[in-house]
Amino acid sequence: MFYRTLCLLCVCWYPVFLSAAGIARHSTLQLSLIADDGRPYPVYAIDNQRDGRICRAWLEAEYGQNYAIHVINNSHRRRGLLIAVDGRNIISGRKSMLARSERMYVLEPWQSATYDGWRTSDSKINQFFFTDAKDSYAGAWQDHSAMGVIAVAVFDEQKVLRSHEKKPVPRMLDRHDMPVELESSDDRAEVSGADREKSRQAGTGFGSEKYSYAKVVMFKPAKVATEKYFYRYEWRETLCQRGIIDCIPNSPNRFWPEHEQYYGYVPPPPG
């Protein structure tokens, strides 16, 4: 059985900035998170020695800024990319389990592509941008189960045995073929008090609409993902509090006193 997947036609070229956190060991895939102007977002690696197929890192988010996921396939084979932002598949919008049956993008050998939004049709997306969790796309579905995580699961293509049977010619999907969002009662549950306390948690919004063309191709993914990337993004202040980054305040300047006119006498009462 073949799975319907998407191949991004409009390949956007950006300067590529790589970090050790963005590449799994011995990987032929290069992945980076970039801003509109091509600069990389700061990434802080987590020790990945336990499993070379899984890469985890912290990402410093910038409030209100658009971002994109840039991927290069440095191999001679097609690769399937299942991308989930805040736990939602960026093609279907549905809650993702990173399963091979979900919709995914396909990268041709040696191809580079940039994925920068929620796909709403075969010609348009709505851009990713960093915002508060309560204003995010996943938050609109009351889904906080994977908030603040960008996940990419990489699937190799299964070899298909040739058959003498005549196979149906694949056709393009029209609007009626697009998946309809279905939510369970668990997905639409009331937001708990703990979720309200996380209102300043970072999330990804449903941003401005832009053209981005894609077509449906046939791709049979392997049963298990060969690599998985997880980026947990948070505001700088949160990363400082967690000790992910060292945020030592600036030392005072001894030649520029904070209170120039203070000579050691009693000040007037406040107010």
Explain what this protein looks like in three dimensions.
The chain has 271 residues and is mainly beta. It has one domain (3-242). It is 6% helix and 32% strand. The protein has helices spanning 137-140, 193-197, 236-242; strands at residues 3-8, 29-34, 43-45, 54-60, 68-73, 79-85, 88-89, 105-107, 112-115, 117-119, 124-132, 149-156, 202-211, 214-219, 227-234. Strand 3 (43-45) and strand 4 (54-60) form a beta hairpin.
Write a concise keyword list for the protein shown above.
single chain, 271 residues, mainly beta, seven-stranded mixed beta sheet, 3 helices, 6% helix, elongated
Please give a quick description of this structure.
The protein is 6% helix and 32% strand.
Number of strands: 15
Overall shape: elongated
Number of domains: 1
Strand content: 25-35%
- Mean pLDDT equals 79
Work out the helix count. Answer: 3
Residues in helices, as a percent range: under 10%
Which structural class do the helices and strands define? mainly beta
Instruction: Report how far apart the termini are.
Output: 77 Å
The major β-sheet equals: 7 strands, mixed
Low-confidence stretches: 9-25, 169-193
Q: Order of helices and strands, N to C? A: EEEEEEEEEEEHEHEEEH
